[in-house]
Design goal:
CATH superfamily of the largest domain: Cupredoxins -  blue copper proteins
Number of strands: 12
CATH class of the largest domain: Mainly Beta
Strand content: 15-25%
Number of domains: 2
Shape: elongated
Distance between the termini: 57 Å
Number of helices: 9
Largest sheet: 5 strands, mixed
Helix content: 25-40%
CATH architecture of the largest domain: Sandwich
Structural class: alpha+beta
């Protein structure tokens, strides 16, 4: 019984708000249930028939009674709706500086990858005091990523991306469950979330805790896939006749051939890779083949991370301190511009054009 808890720990910034709504709803339901039960008992006793054929006088309409049982419940419901909507919007709007982690559900495990390249299975390391945004998908069936101590849960759906965020408030190890029945081994699809102090998390992220560092940064892995698939044949540093440039594409408004205007978010990029004929950009021909079945969900996330990293040079390279021109030493040590990285990805020009990404 020492390990039994009626309620899990409260270990995130939204956990207290969720608990407050829950207990308020339980209290309101209990109050009205008891009040109705007492009223029924009183009326049964007060108006019981004591003699044969006793007839009680009928009641005419009582305005105060009708208003009394209609208006207060309406106000209570509206107040709870407003309160719940505010908490819901908070839980659905991650802060812009949230740490990005990608999670893929698979029968029967959770696979997580950090932007820096660290990979985990059935574990998720996060820093305390910093928002963490998870982008979720599934390789097979619907799963549900549930952390009771954080009071957050989100479905991982095959064929699309969902997201959730949280901010841990204290270090510790917390349960991770799949809350959607996903097959015969559903009960074994469990894991743990390890909340760490920021300095300790940075050491773990860089491999300083003794755990081996596996994998490369997601954007670098995505660039390697981009080159292997010969996507640069059509998508170069500048727009060409075959396909538009991907530099600065993420979160930009894109006009499609059918007249629609969409935002180039993760979901759009995923569709552009797997079902390019559904999102042909205005001014371009539908020549891009589908990569469905050729890349895994993890590879898709890496490609998207690479596309997200392609920003115009004026955004990717802030001006050095003390002036607008870098010194010769600074220029020699500077990272390549994103447009140059994309141009290098287009170098294997001998690759067949039909392997290029059509795109956004």
């Amino acid at each position: 019984m020492g390990n039994f808890q009626l309620f899990p720990e409260t270990a995130s910034t939204v956990a207290g708000q969720v608990d407050a709504i829950y207990f308020t709803l339980v209290g309101i339901a209990a109050f009205f249930s008891i009040a109705i039960a007492i009223t029924i008992i009183v009326l049964v006793i007060r108006y019981r028939r004591s003699v044969e054929r006793q007839v009680f006088p009928t009641w005419e309409g009582m305005l105060w009674l009708e208003v009394g049982w209609a208006i207060p419940p309406l106000l209570i419901v509206l107040a709870m709706f407003t309160w719940g909507a505010r908490v819901f919007m908070t839980m659905q709007t991650p802060p812009p500086d949230a740490l990005q982690v990608y999670v893929v559900g698979k029968q029967w495990m959770w696979k997580a990858q950090h932007i820096e390249g660290r990979r985990e299975i059935n574990e998720l390391h996060v820093p305390v005091g910093r928002p963490v945004r998870l982008t979720l998908t599934s390789e097979d069936v619907i799963h549900s990523f549930f952390i009771p101590a954080f009071r957050v849960k989100m479905d991982a759906v095959p064929g699309r991306y969902t997201s959730m965020w949280f901010e841990a408030t204290k270090p510790g190890t917390y349960h991770l469950f799949c809350a959607e029945y996903c097959g015969s081994e559903h009960s074994r699809m469990v894991g743990r979330v390890i909340a760490m102090e920021p300095a300790e998390f940075q050491r773990w992220l860089s491999g300083g805790t003794g755990a081996p560092v596996t994998g490369e940064a997601m954007a670098d892995a995505g660039q390697r896939l981009f080159e292997q698939l010969a996507c640069g044949t059509c998508h170069q540093a500048e727009s060409s006749d075959r396909g538009p440039t991907l530099v600065g594409l993420f979160q930009r408004q894109v006009t499609l051939a059918d007249g629609r205007t969409v935002v180039a978010d993760e979901e759009y990029l995923r569709e552009a890779i797997l079902n390019p004929q559904a999102s042909v950009v205005a001014g371009y021909q539908p020549i891009m083949p589908t990569f469905k079945g050729l890349v895994s969900e993890e590879s898709l996330l890496q490609l998207i991370a690479y596309i997200k990293s392609l920003q115009p040079s004026d955004e990717a390279e802030p001006a050095p301190p003390g002036g607008t021109h870098a010194t010769g030493e600074q220029a020699s040590n500077a990272e390549p511009r994103e447009s140059e990285r994309l141009a290098r990805a287009a170098e294997p020009a001998a690759a067949p054009a039909h392997r290029g990404m059509e795109a956004p």
